[in-house]
Amino acid sequence: MSHTTTWTAGSQQIRIEKDLQVPMRDGVKLAADTYRGMDDKPRPALVALSPYGKELQAMALTMPPQRRPSPMWDGCIEAGDIAKIVQEDYVHVVGDIRGSGDSEGEHIGNYNAGGVSLGQDAYDFIEWVAAQPWCDGNVGMVGISYFGSMSVLAAAERPPSLKAIFVSGGHYDFYETTYHGGIMWLMPRAAREGRGGDSGWAFTDRIKSRMLEEYSEAELKELVAERLKDPDIAAWPNMVHTLNYPKHHEAWFDIIMNDLDGEWYEERNPINLADNIDIPVWLQIDNGRGWTIDGTIELYNKLKGPKKLDIGPSPPMQSRPWIEEHDKMFRWYDYWIKGIDNGVMDEPAVTVHVEGSHETSTGNQYPTKDTEYRPLYLRPRHKLSEEPELMGSEHAAPDGFFQAPLTVTDTVHNIRWETAPFAEDTEMMGTGAAHIFAEIDQDDTNFIMRLWDAAPNGSRQLITTGFLKASQRELDEERTTEGNPYHPHTRKVPVEPGTINEYVLRLYPFANTFKPGHKLVVELSNNEPMEDEHNALLPPDAFHLPVGRPVTHKIYRDAEHPSRLVLPFVKSSN
């Protein structure tokens, strides 16, 4: 039964209606709460949908926003600033998706790809909201991360009452949500199950594993045994536990069991659905979110209607409850939903915060400036240079490092190279590539590369990263261009130990100006430290699955093996 209450803070009063039942076309009812002004006039509505639980989102009214690092930061309070939304004369509608929280129905597999389309449910939810007496028939959507992905899935279904969307920090390529360059990222488990500062999904017994639904017990036993042959999986307790007790970890079990890209990840990939979106879309993301920037730019380029792209400053982990970017969102919705001519469409389509200079660059496409790809070669004595190595392998001995598995060591080893101090402002913007000629003594490893802007005083800021599972080094030659490699990640080709292979890492989009005296420092490892200048800002589980075997890496950088970075230098305006 729904019921109505009132929330008061100072002079602001909000009418709250709890536990509304929203019917879907198949008879399932989704649970929703509404927050609106005290009078009965109809208003436009902003809808927020996720599996994180509408009661958790209600804490935006009672808990001050927390920044990382903070023990009170909860990554799942993402539906937006309720009081601000109501103050701006919108109705805030927060719902639990199918199978989660107080909603009916089953949620099967990652993003419910094994059940009813989440976009279909969003369509029905939005049209129900638009028909209510407290709504004027116009709807937008609100929320970061999962909520943002739901906005894109909803827009692709074209509900008539959805007039525009503002998407902050959404996830698009679902394989890339969890596997970066083929290397498993553990953060999605925190978001699903509640670890490392996240409350996780509002789980019910109706959230189910797609693998458990579609395979017999005997088939699953064989598939699990095969997955446990991966030394990285077998060495990590959480992986072993999940594979042996999957009913405790339904969604995470499906992800672990599907470590290659394919139909399960692509069938409802929002980027694949972008051709269906014709309403105005503003995409917002912050520097430092790597793979998420990649997907955001890819989605932006596919959209054909009115659109904006806004890339903000690092660090990316915003406040929780999420309160950032609301002023931009209201300008967008005031224009497209309320019909207020506030000039938002007279401004450049693309806005990029450039790290280092802390300037804002604008244009009509990304990158916003003319760029050219130029190489920086790995050279002796850990140097990066515009000049290639002239010596052969008999004289230019390879660099290298040995990494023992983290089961027996606390030390993560890396090898680094750096430029000379820049003499003048040097700006880069766009994607990049790292061509690494390497020999390993195992059949697989991780290559993890991080690029830093190092200041003369010793401080440094991470500017971009690249990841590649050695066994997934295959390139799609038709889609790969200079400085922009593309890996299909659809099969594994084990490495023959002792052979030299070229590994091409995709460096995620970034924008940075190296000031005079600063250096570009690049680090290569096969694991990553739990804490450093960047990782200390992230939740504890925001790292990648470590390599579970001892590996010796030799990095060749001679005339026959021109290991190098290929970076997007902004062309001089002189």
Structure explained in plain terms:
The chain has 574 residues and is of the alpha+beta class. Helices cover 19% and strands 30% of the residues. The strands form six sheets. Strands 16, 17, 18, 20, 23, 25 and 26 form a seven-stranded antiparallel β-sheet that branches. A six-stranded mixed β-sheet has the order 1-2-3-5-4-7. α3 (118-130) packs across α4. The mean pLDDT is 93. Residues 330-566 form the Xaa-Pro dipeptidyl-peptidase C-terminal domain.
Compact overview of the structure:
This protein has 574 residues and is an alpha+beta fold. It has helices at residues 54-57, 82-87, 118-130, 146-156, 174-178, 187-193, 210-214, 217-227, 231-234, 237-244, 250-257, 263-266, 291-302, 326-336, and strands at 3-9, 12-23, 29-36, 43-50, 91-96, 107-108, 135-141, 165-168, 179-180, 183-184, 207-208, 281-286, 307-312, 350-354, 359-363, 371-379, 383-385, 399-403, 415-418, 426-440, 446-454, 460-469, 500-514, 519-525, 551-556, 564-570.
